[in-house]
């Protein structure tokens, strides 16, 4: 059975009992009379709860129009009954003169009970607009006092005068009603075009309620007491059904008259906008404060604290907190970083910020939880102050969009359920938009600072790396040297070095550390140290590379290796020894005027440094190649940035093209060939900025005048090759 049907049946039971008393000629006993009055008041209360529970949110015009229309109907009905029926109350028994009087009393009483319940259910959304805790408490107080006022006369005969307690509770009820009537915050949200209609409806409602009071108490719709003396005032028909119900309806009718009048006056004089203006001023202050702060403060934490304070200062929420992501530190889940109205720990515990963050993304905007404590994503329990919750994204609507929800969410809570009105949400969304913009500025500033810092560090690293390269090349009779290096970034992973080993001997190293940037540069510095120290201990290219593998392999990171080629030129003997550790093949060019002239790629075996950390396999595979140099011999040691350069069609420069170019220009000096090769590289790639680190060293042997017998080049380059480490049973395998 629904509350509405139960209420009507309850009133029918009361009416039947009253009719039976009239038929029997004796009033019911005190207990029965109290029970009937309580039943009547309970029925009216049930009717109110039934209507309030099904009404939901309605517009202000409808909230005023419904009770106004119903009030007019009840007024007309009351006047009609008063004009067409001549019943009265017997002053001696306190009973109606006949049963038909009870019937009309039941009809009017039920109508007025329905009017009172409708009036309260309709005005409730307006009176509770914003649902502040204080307003809810005041509304509950008003209802409680109204019921107490009604119950003070429960069981009392009609002709007994009003008790003092009823006057006290009634006055308190009226004061509470006045306090509610003065809360007209909803008017500030009313569209201007609706204000005239709202004012007319409110005035009509107030006038109708006043008219009902007049008609029922001494007016044409009142039921007279038949003693003829006039000492006992007339009663409303509803009092015949239940004096408590009549008192209840009286309080509600007075409240309706006051609320309608207050609404009309507020619309006419703008009295209601004071509180709303205060809130709007608070909202403006919060936005202005945030805007000012965003211009001066670029610290994310300080901005987050200001964002959390904003809704609370503007009275848009009782508590607020900010949860931000931090992709730059690998944190893609939002973390609560600031709170206002709650401690940081309480805010963190109150709700699952990550789940709400993703739900807000799916909702494509603000996510409103009117009854937050019932939501599985909210951990706060009743009494924790999170009865309703709004989650606002601090960015665009897409979680994957550039700068979208990556910044996080703003969560705003109220201590009462269903507390956020449309104007609150609009203000919060505006505030969240400004907050996202401020955070964006702070992030951009932080990014700019970081880029500037990195640029300074890279510039410094580049300067340091430049010092790792030879500041000048040694001068050796009969040998021309030239070198060049072009990093793809500020700091590259290529390395070359030339050291003098005695008066007539130089060692030349070209290496390429896998990867680029600062890590590669660190390994390059380490390689330089090994080379500088090792080249003075041995003239064997194989032994130096093996020593470099032993020294560097333990310190290289996983997957990091270095290719290298090392050549030793003995100018006194006119020989060159070469070993290659997984590096690009060296280019050897000999004058074609000689019988043994030509160009070759020297591809001696050898693993890259770091691939065999134990070193046995590295030594086993490493080969040395030796060349008896002839005047005009040119050797090019280089990194893969030279051969892997691509033209506009994506074609690699390649080894053969490189060797042919060196051969074509081998007659010029080493320095001129270096410049020609750099120009060729730029022309091929079509850019001054190489895609990969590019480094090379040119060695051109001019000789010291001694004759050099032609070598046998029928099976390959004029080199002799040997294992760098001949098989030794004592070496580990």
TrEMBL record:
Transmembrane segments: 29-52, 64-89, 101-123, 135-154, 160-182, 194-215, 245-271
SMART domains: PP2C_SIG (SM00331)
Domain PPM-type phosphatase: 476-701
GO MF term set: phosphatase activity
Region (Disordered) location: 706-733
UniProt keyword annotations, A-Z: Hydrolase, Membrane, Transmembrane, Transmembrane helix
Superkingdom, taxonomy of origin: Bacteria
Alphabetical list of SUPFAM superfamilies matching this protein: GAF domain-like (SSF55781), PP2C-like (SSF81606)
Alphabetized InterPro entries for the sequence: Bact_Sigma-Reg (IPR052016), GAF-like_dom_sf (IPR029016), PPM-type-like_dom_sf (IPR036457), PPM-type_phosphatase-like_dom (IPR001932)
Gene3D superfamilies in the cross-refs: 3.30.450.40, PPM-type phosphatase domain (3.60.40.10)
The protein, known as: PPM-type phosphatase domain-containing protein
Species per Swiss-Prot/TrEMBL record: Rubrivirga marina
